[in-house]
Amino acid sequence: MFSYINERKALISEFIEDYLLKKSNEFSAVNTWGKDVSERVNYFTKDGKMIRGALILFSHDMCGNRNQRYALRSAAAIELLQSYLLIHDDIMDRDKFRRGNPSIFHQYSLMIPDMPADQAEHFGASMGICAGDVAIFLALGLLLDDASDNAVKNSVMELFFREMTLVGFGQMQDIYFGISRKIPETKDVMDLYTYKTSRYTFSLPLKVGALISGDTVNADILFNIGIKLGIIFQIRDDELGLFGESDKIGKVAGSDVREGKMTIFMTELLPSLQSDEKEKIYSFFGKETAKVDDIVYLRNIIENKGIRSKVEVIKKKLSDECSDMIKSINVAENYKDMIYKLLEYNLTRDK
After folding, report:
1. For the chain, what are the domain ranges?
2. pTM for the whole thing?
3. DSSP strand E in the chain: where?
4. Measuring CA to CA, which residue among 74, 98, 72 is closest to residue 85?
5. How far is CA 65 from CA 12, 60, 123, 209, 215, in A?
6. CATH superfamily, with its number, for domain 2-348
7. Which of 236, 245, 92, 117 has its CA nearest to residue 173?
8. According to the model, what pLDDT value does residue 246 have?
9. What integer pLDDT is reported at residue 253 of this predicted model?
């Protein structure tokens, strides 16, 4: 599966580079930022794993391979939309680094060395928001393909618009959970995982590829498989955010704690704590000043209370349900095997 993803990443990267180069030449006539944003978005996008775009091409191949042109355009579109989400996400989370490199807004904040720190931060955030907005419309331009069948194009665009809208609501819920002292139910966080990450990361691309190939039967099954894959992916992401190594995960370990991210680990942990333990955690949770010792304390209490093991049980249940659905899709066995490998990756990845 991963050799396939890497091959498709190279194909999507080349397409995006050519597309943004043409747009850069067009936009440079407006002002210097036309070229600047096109180049930054290009490098930022190509630095990602491009799993979403590769999944569109994978599903398209698996379900009939009937419109390679539109599949590739859709794959590039979802990667540009992913860049938009990450650019804005870094601003909201105040993450100065992404994948080990300066995030887009932080790049802009460093552009004018003599600017006072507060002005530089505001300038960077403002420019980052604009760059993310540009990425949205660059993506939409790819979906508006006159050479594709209108019925297919309309169904794909409708799915894109719906799912990306839901991501916005999921992000708002995530922000609210980060500032509220009310402890959400684990179900609420699972819903957050579903709408903020799972559906657009796995369900959307898997269904889009099937729709482009005209396979409406497998499209819905693949969408539901994607939900399970995505929830597992996000649980593992949160686990790495707590227990992973900074040099592997591409951001500072414990940054989710400093940002006040309400994860499944927290919803399972907090109700089990004594009042003094809870107050200790709230003394640093959601605060940029949280120290390494604070993160270690949280890690230890999660382990000692059996929360990590409990979450593993939840992941195992989701994995079993996903496996059963993979068995039910009517595609060649080699494609099923590749989805199983993706499931295993989501369960065990280290970055």
Report:
1. 2-348
2. 0.90
3. 97-98, 101-102
4. 98
5. 16, 5, 45, 9, 10
6. Farnesyl Diphosphate Synthase (1.10.600.10)
7. 92
8. 53
9. 65
